[in-house]
């Protein structure tokens, strides 16, 4: 979330699309009802299903699963065509005036540089025109057809309301009504917030859906303001934190990235990351990358990390490609992975195409499952009848199942969607012999380290030198680890203006990432978390909920990264001359007397840079402004374009009916063997989408009796038309088949799923909730991911769980 | 039977009083009409955070006893933390049912091992688990560690063993896991951000 | 032998039947009155409290119905209403004042008794039917709440009727000297028979 | 003993006045159906707080689960997909449970002294230790709420968390409700809040929005805000004009009194007759002549 949960109450308009906040985040959704109650806010829900969110919406419109770019592109077209945008905002805070390279182009669904063989783009032309001064060339008149504004307008001119209706099936009048409501939020004193979740991410073009919505928000001037923003409702309690800490194939803590094979030179590695400003006077905060990196290396490898060895740069593994979960299961399926460790993750149920995942797991030599609960993954080798029909004797995998504690049995911090690091306290001991995750990781690691110490082995240095300064080595305490990632001075830190003045003594906790150094004198395990445990103590444990400005900014509750800032890009809530766009909901403002930015939030800006300096509000971008034109950052192009889901009822992309390459995302990775696993609309005519129910959390709460009572048995939802056609009545048992397998479940026949008119034909949607499996207290069911395709978003490799094809029949 | 009007009224009066005697006079003893005893009066309260979605709702966990030496804490009730700025004491159905997650019959109690081809679990000790897992990992790492790629570039990666990090473990666990995974050279490393 | 000639009015099995009815009636009545009005709730203590009374009452009631139906079956032929009965009814005022002369010769039972039997029969059928409607936990859940509401009203009303019948019956038995003896020892004197049921006496005496 | 437990307004099957000198604050639980997302958190909170666990059932082709109230489920969400105007789909979700009527039909019907009490704050509570399991409360209730337990035969229903309210807390369901669709407070405050909600709903196009506080039972201590107050039956059969059934009134109020008098009259009539007329005897002389 760029903003945070409570801030939603400041919105005038709420768009829930690509998510179902009422269903999946009810306690956060409370702030929608608050906005409605106290600001008279309106709620719009756009979803293939009439969801629980829709049940309390002012306006609901259906669309076909996987067509959100078409819908939002239509909104962009409406806003630009009718000139309903925040001019002052877009002109000053976005790349509207920037000139795009002349050789960049877009032709019948493909951008320049496409290599059909590799299914990827050479992105050299995807850039700004750079002038002789090293800065981007701009056209403040916005007249040049190569300026971003003109190119954007031209690109989305094709997304007419008629085209939206054709692709999405959304009735034109509903679409225009929603456009009109959204356009209202272009007023400087109005804010729309966008709440989305996996309804956008889980598509082969999910990242671009989110980008399209972000572009709408930029046009309206709604990024960085109270009640606005792009608010990703993260699915799990600490998936934000684990992502922040870089627990992904290619990441280091704080969104630093691991080097690729080609980056053999440390300075070159820094050079491509510590970017110089692209416009005069810009902060380009990533210029500090070296400080963050060195401090992390010092935290990890201590005295072994020196300037001479480039802070152990080569101790880090280098990437030849990304090893996301889909790639790893592909490799496992190919037989090149021998071991797998699942720490509180249940991939057999969570990953796409169960048959492939189960087959892959069976090829492992060993599998370690660390979990408080008996998960499906830990029993993938066990025969559970129709739900997991395998032969244990044929599976040669050694499996370990290690009991861990649950939330109530440990101390520690979690990062919520609003980036708040919140500390929690242990209430009871774990059952029987269960151990904390830290103790389990320590147990495994220290045993390995001892083996390397005794017997040597492949490249033991990083293992032997990993810092391990814990009072109880076999159980590192959460407090010690939190202090480590928050950051410590390794040497006395002196005032740059007065070297005699010691600001922090060696061994003291840092106040924040501004104090990090690239000379090895500071250690910080995760720069964006820096300051969460300072000399003032554990700020994550703060519990002062005072809200002095009355707009939900509780700065003394817990700690928000970065730097306890609650709303990102908050400089953009002010006009270029430093006054709030909406004086009733000020976040920060330029305080001339104090010579600083002050207000209800920590400025996301150089706190003392006066407006006249012209520094842009998007300080992490070298341009200082937000980008409509994504440069080379996205796999499938600088402007989002609608592509059909890999399994679509349409034979062609209505925008590019004659270009087969532009039917589905041209840059999405498809493994060789998986092309055959896509089904056709002839065989599988219904659009299927999978989702959560509010009564359950993933594959987890089915183990809790109270929640098993609420939704005891697997079901699928279908509209009345389709039910009539198939002779299915509510309560009947039905089989839902995809090319990859089938599930059997109870039918819920509902008015809430409408038949859509797509490109002149009727398209039915089948909804499949995900929560059942063959373990737990609820009735056993089929793993929903038996049905889903093994293809992901081109940028994030998030699987396409939200739109694929099935056939449904009565059993 | 000679009952004149006067007699009739007399009879009626007698009947009413008789009826009253029978019915009102023997009003039953008052049973105690007391509400159920409040069950948290002396329970121990601990602040926590909901482990499910990312709203990060504050929780109050109530456990039996006062944490004295002879009374191991047993969690008896969980409700929302009214001080929490986001949830303000509310919870969703999952959070409301956390008690049954803590006490799920499917909680794991001991390290277990399943041998190749076996149809069942066997209970093992933590030491056995750590020793065997460490040996398997080291064996695989030593055999498949890639110090240099085909081009002779230093890459120092280990991709034949993968790691899936959780979605609900703490930052402290995540940080420790990140450190350990990278020190081993792991790249087949992912979390539950996507699914 | 008594000094007066005795006539068998009720056989041993009839008497047993009657007293089974009476016993079941008293048990059902005592256990049910607590639910009829709170003032009688103390009576439930006789059965071990309210819950026991609730559990037992329907069984007493079912027993009552069973024995009563048997009784009615076996006494039916003596309960048919004859023209003499209507003649007899015209003397009601006299009868109430114990003036028993000039009565028509009626059968074994007089019209009052016959009507009482009919009333009680009807009431007990209603009690049984409505009782089943509200019999927890066995039958009640099978019926709609509206039907059960009718059931409780009918049950209460029929119970009232049957209780009034009971009071009348008991009083009449007490008032009519010799009647109780006929149901304890089975016999009445010939004079009693002639006095109360001349027709029946004639039939018996030949 | 909680002070509040003594502040009783009515007590089932009790013929003498109950201790009622103190008048406590009248409370109301306000369920704003227009804010309810049907998440069922209230169902869980209710079971969790009251130490109940309903059976893990099955899906019957609808979202409603458990399918009905029971001794283990004192509240359930009832889902209705309706189109009050053609083409305008609404998913109306109502939290069903005890309405805590000001004139409770259950209490009126109950024959067991003290098994049902109405506190002066308006809560109607069942005391299972005094309950005899007759099921009359089920018959008396205009909303079909109480359920007999198959385990112990006693009647159970929502207590409005009388144990929590007694110590100054809100009911578990009201506390938990993530969208604030369940509020708890003084009757005055709740009516005021409800009036504001009705204004908001009317502005949003629900011309017939209103508060459900049926006069047929003298009002309730659980009230609804409805978008379609003119058609409560849309909400899975919420009764339009509920009241204690005339049959129950006939049974408990008129009939019993009259019948008591009737029985007394029969007894007294007998006594009077005997005293005035004496026994009907066969005279000695008659005996002699036979």
Can you offer a commentary on this structure?
- The complex is a heterotetramer of chains A (811), B (195), C (206) and D (290).
- Chain A has 811 residues and is an alpha/beta fold.
- Chain A is built from 21 helices and 33 strands.
- Among the domains of chain A are: 236-335 and 405-416 and 419-563, no CATH class; 570-613, no CATH class; 660-810, Barwin-like endoglucanases (Beta Barrel).
- In chain A, strands 26-32-27-29-28-33 form a six-stranded mixed barrel. Chain A has a five-stranded parallel β-sheet with strand order 3-2-1-8-9, with helices on both faces.
- Chain B is an alpha+beta fold and 195 residues long.
- Chain C is elongated, with a radius of gyration of 19 Å.
- Chain C has one domain: Fumarate Reductase Cytochrome B subunit.
- Helices cover 67% and strands 3% of the residues of chain C.
- Chain C has helices at 12-36, 50-75, 83-90, 92-96, 111-133, 145-175, 179-184, 190-196, 198-205, and strands at residues 6-8, 187-189.
- Chain D is elongated, with a radius of gyration of 25 Å.
- Chain D has helices at residues 41-49, 105-109, 136-140, 162-166, 172-176, 187-203, 246-277, 284-289; strands at residues 8-11, 27-32, 75-85, 88-97, 116-119, 124-126, 147-148, 155-156, 182-186, 210-212, 222-226.
- Chain D has two domains: 3-244, Alpha-Beta Plaits; 245-277.
- Chain D is of the alpha+beta class.
- Chains in contact: A-B, A-D, B-C, B-D, C-D.
- The interface between A and B is large, with 171 and 120 residues.
Secondary-structure-derived class of chain B: alpha+beta
Count every beta strand of chain A, where a strand is a DSSP E run of 2 or more residues: 33
> Which band does the percent of strand residues of chain A land in?
15-25%
Helical residues, percent of chain B: 25-40%
Helix content of chain A: 10-25%
Outline of chain B = elongated
Low-confidence stretches of chain B: 5-28
Q: Give the low-pLDDT segments of chain A.
A: none
How much strand of chain B?
15-25%
The span between the termini of chain B is 93 Å
Main sheet characteristics of chain B: 3 strands, antiparallel
Number of helices of chain B: 5
Going by helix content, strand content and strand pairing, the class of chain A is: alpha/beta
Backbone CA Rg of chain A:
26 Å
Q: Strand tally of chain B, please?
A: 9
Strand order of the largest sheet of chain A: 26-32-27-29-28-33
Question: How would a textbook summarize the main sheet of chain A?
Answer: 6 strands, mixed, barrel
Please work out how many helical segments of chain A DSSP would assign: 21
């Amino acid at each position: 979330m760029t903003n945070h949960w409570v801030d939603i109450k400041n919105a005038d308009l709420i768009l829930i699309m690509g998510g179902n906040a009422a269903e999946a985040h009810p306690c956060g959704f409370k702030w929608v009802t608050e906005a409605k109650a106290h600001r008279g806010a309106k709620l719009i829900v756009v979803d293939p299903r009439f969801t629980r969110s829709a049940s309390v919406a002012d306006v609901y419109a259906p669309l076909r699963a996987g067509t959100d770019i078409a819908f939002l592109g239509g909104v962009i077209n409406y806003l630009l065509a009718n000139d309903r945008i925040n001019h002052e905002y877009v002109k000053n805070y976005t790349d509207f005036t920037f000139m795009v390279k002349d050789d960049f182009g877009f032709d019948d669904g493909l951008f320049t540089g496409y290599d059909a063989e590799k299914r990827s783009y050479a992105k050299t032309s995807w850039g700004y025109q750079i002038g002789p001064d090293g800065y981007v060339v701009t056209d403040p008149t916005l007249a040049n057809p190569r300026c971003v504004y003109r190119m954007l307008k031209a690109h989305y001119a094709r997304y007419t309301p008629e085209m939206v209706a054709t692709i999405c099936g959304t009735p034109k009048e509903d679409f225009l009504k929603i456009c009109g409501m959204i356009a209202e939020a272009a007023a400087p004193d109005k804010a729309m917030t966008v709440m989305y979740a996996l309804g956008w991410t889980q598509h082969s073009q999910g990242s671009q859906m989110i980008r399209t919505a972000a572009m709408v928000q930029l046009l309206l001037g709604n990024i960085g303001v109270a009640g606005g923003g792009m608010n990703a409702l993260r699915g799990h309690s600490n998936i934000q934190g684990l992502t922040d800490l870089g627990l992904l194939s290619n990441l280091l803590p704080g969104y630093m990235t691991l080097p690729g094979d080609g980056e053999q030179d440390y300075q070159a590695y820094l050079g491509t990351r510590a970017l110089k400003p692209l416009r005069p006077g810009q902060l380009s905060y990533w210029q500090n990358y070296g400080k963050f990196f060195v401090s992390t290396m010092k935290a990890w490898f201590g005295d072994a990390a020196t300037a001479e060895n480039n802070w152990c740069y080569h101790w880090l593994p280098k990437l030849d490609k990304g090893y996301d979960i889909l790639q790893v299961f592909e490799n496992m399926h190919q037989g090149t992975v021998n071991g797998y460790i699942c720490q509180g993750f249940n991939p057999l149920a969570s990953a796409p195409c169960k048959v492939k995942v189960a087959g892959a797991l069976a090829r492992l030599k060993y599998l370690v499952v660390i979990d408080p609960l008996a998960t499906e993954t830990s029993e993938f080798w066990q025969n559970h009848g129709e739900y997991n029909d395998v032969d244990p004797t044929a599976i040669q995998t050694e499996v370990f199942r290690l009991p861990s504690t649950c939330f109530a049995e440990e101390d520690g911090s979690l990062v919520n969607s609003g980036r708040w690091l919140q500390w929690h306290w242990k209430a009871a001991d774990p059952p029987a012999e269960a151990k904390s995750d830290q103790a389990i990781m320590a147990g495994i690691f220290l045993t390995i380290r001892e083996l390397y110490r005794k017997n040597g082995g492949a490249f033991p240095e990083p293992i032997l030198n990993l810092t391990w300064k814990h009072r109880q080595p076999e159980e590192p305490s959460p407090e010690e680890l939190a202090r480590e990632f928050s950051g410590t001075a390794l040497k006395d830190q002196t005032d740059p203006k007065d070297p005699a003045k010691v600001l922090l003594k060696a061994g003291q906790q840092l106040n924040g990432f501004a104090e990090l150094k690239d000379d090895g004198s500071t250690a910080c395990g995760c720069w964006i978390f820096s300051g969460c445990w300072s000399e003032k103590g554990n700020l994550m444990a703060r519990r002062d909920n005072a809200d002095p400005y009355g707009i939900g900014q509780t700065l003394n509750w817990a700690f928000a990264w970065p730097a306890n800032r609650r709303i990102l890009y908050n400089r953009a809530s002010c006009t270029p001359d430093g006054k709030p766009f909406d004086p009733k909901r000020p976040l920060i403002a330029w305080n001339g007397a104090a010579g600083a930015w002050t207000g209800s939030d920590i400025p996301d800006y150089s706190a003392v840079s006066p407006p006249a300096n012209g520094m842009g509000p998007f300080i992490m971008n070298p341009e200082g402004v937000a980008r409509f034109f994504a440069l080379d950052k996205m796999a499938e192009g600088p402007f989002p374009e609608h592509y059909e889901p890999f399994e679509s009822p349409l034979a062609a992309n209505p925008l590019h009916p004659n270009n087969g390459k532009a039917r589905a995302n041209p840059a999405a990775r498809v493994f060789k063997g998986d092309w055959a696993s896509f089904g056709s609309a002839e065989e599988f005519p219904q659009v299927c989408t999978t989702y959560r129910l509010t009564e359950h959390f993933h594959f987890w709460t089915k183990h809790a009796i109270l929640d098993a009572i609420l939704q005891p048995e697997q079901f699928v939802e279908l509209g009345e038309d389709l039910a009539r056609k198939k002779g299915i009545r509510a309560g009947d048992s039905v089989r839902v088949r995809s090319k990859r397998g089938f599930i059997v479940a109870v039918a819920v026949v509902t008015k809430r799923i409408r038949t859509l008119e797509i490109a002149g034909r009727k398209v039915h949607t089948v909804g499949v909730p995900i929560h059942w499996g063959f373990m737990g207290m609820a009735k056993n069911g089929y793993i929903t991911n038996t049905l889903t395709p093994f293809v992901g978003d081109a940028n994030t490799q998030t699987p396409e769980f939200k739109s694929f094809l099935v056939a449904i029949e009565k059993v | 039977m000679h009952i004149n009007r006067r007699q009739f009224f007399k009879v009626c009066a007698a009947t009413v009083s008789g009826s009253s005697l029978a019915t009102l006079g023997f009003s039953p003893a008052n049973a105690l009409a007391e509400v159920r005893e409040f069950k948290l009066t002396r329970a121990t309260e601990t602040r926590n955070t909901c482990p499910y979605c990312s709203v990060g709702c504050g929780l109050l966990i109530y456990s039996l006893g006062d944490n004295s030496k002879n009374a191991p804490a047993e969690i008896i009730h969980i409700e929302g933390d009214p001080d929490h700025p986001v949830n303000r004491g509310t919870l969703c159905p999952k959070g409301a049912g956390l008690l049954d997650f803590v006490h799920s019959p499917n909680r794991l109690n001991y390290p277990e091992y399943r041998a190749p081809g076996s149809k069942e679990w066997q209970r093992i000790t933590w030491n056995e688990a750590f020793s065997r897992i460490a040996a398997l990992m080291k064996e695989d790492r030593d055999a498949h560690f890639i110090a240099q790629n085909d081009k002779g570039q230093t890459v120092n990666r280990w991709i034949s063993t993968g790691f899936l990090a959780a979605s609900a473990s703490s930052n402290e666990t995540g940080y420790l896991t990140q450190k350990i995974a990278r020190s081993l050279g792991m790249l087949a490393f992912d979390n539950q951000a996507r699914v | 032998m008594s000094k007066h000639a005795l006539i068998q009015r009720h056989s041993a099995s009839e008497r047993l039947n009657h007293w089974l009815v009476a016993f079941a009636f008293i048990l059902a009545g005592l256990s049910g009155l607590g639910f009829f009005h709170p003032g009688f709730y103390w009576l439930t203590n006789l059965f071990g409290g309210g819950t026991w009374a609730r559990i037992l009452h329907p069984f007493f009631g079912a027993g009552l119905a069973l024995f009563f139906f048997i009784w009615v079956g076996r006494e039916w032929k003596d309960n048919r209403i004859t023209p003499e009965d209507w003649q007899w009814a015209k003397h009601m005022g006299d009868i109430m004042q114990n003036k028993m002369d000039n009565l028509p010769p009626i059968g074994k039972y007089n019209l009052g008794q016959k009507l009482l039997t009919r009333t009680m029969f009807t009431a007990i059928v209603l009690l049984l039917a409505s009782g089943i409607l509200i019999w927890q936990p066995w039958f009640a859940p099978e019926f709609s709440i509206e039907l059960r509401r009718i059931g409780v009203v009918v049950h209460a009303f029929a119970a009232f009727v049957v209780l009034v019948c009971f009071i009348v019956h008991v009083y009449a038995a007490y008032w009519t000297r010799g009647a109780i003896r006929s149901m304890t020892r089975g016999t009445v004197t010939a004079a009693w028979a002639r006095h109360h049921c001349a027709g029946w006496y004639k039939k018996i005496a030949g | 003993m909680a002070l509040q437990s003594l502040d009783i307004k009515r007590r089932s099957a009790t013929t003498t006045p109950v201790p009622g000198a103190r008048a406590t604050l009248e409370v109301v639980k306000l369920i704003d159906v227009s804010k309810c997302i049907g998440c069922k958190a209230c169902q869980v909170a209710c079971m969790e707080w009251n130490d109940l666990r309903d059976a893990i059932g099955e899906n019957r082709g609808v979202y409603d689960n458990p399918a009905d109230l029971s001794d283990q489920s004192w509240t359930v969400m009832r889902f209705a997909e309706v189109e009050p105007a053609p083409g305008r789909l609404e998913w109306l979700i109502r939290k069903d449970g005890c309405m805590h009527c000001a004139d409770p039909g259950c209490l009126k019907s109950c024959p067991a002294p003290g098994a049902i009490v109405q506190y002066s704050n308006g809560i109607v509570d069942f005391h299972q230790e005094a309950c005899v399991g007759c099921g009359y409360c089920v018959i008396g209730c205009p909303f079909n709420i109480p359920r007999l337990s198959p385990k112990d035969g006693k009647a159970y229903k929502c207590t409005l968390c009388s144990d929590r309210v007694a110590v100054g807390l809100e009911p578990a369901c009201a506390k938990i409700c993530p969208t604030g669709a369940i509020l708890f407070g003084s009757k005055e405050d709740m009516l005021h809040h409800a009036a504001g909600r009705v204004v908001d709903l009317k502005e949003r196009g629900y011309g017939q929005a209103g508060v459900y506080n049926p006069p047929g039972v003298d009002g309730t201590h659980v009230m609804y805000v409805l978008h379609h107050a003119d058609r409560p039956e849309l909400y899975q059969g919420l009764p339009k004009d509920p009241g204690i059934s005339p049959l129950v009134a006939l049974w408990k109020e008129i009939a019993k009194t009259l019948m008591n008098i009737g029985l007394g009259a029969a007894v007294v009539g007998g006594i009077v007759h005997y005293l005035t007329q004496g026994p009907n005897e066969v005279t000695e002389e008659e005996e002699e002549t036979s």
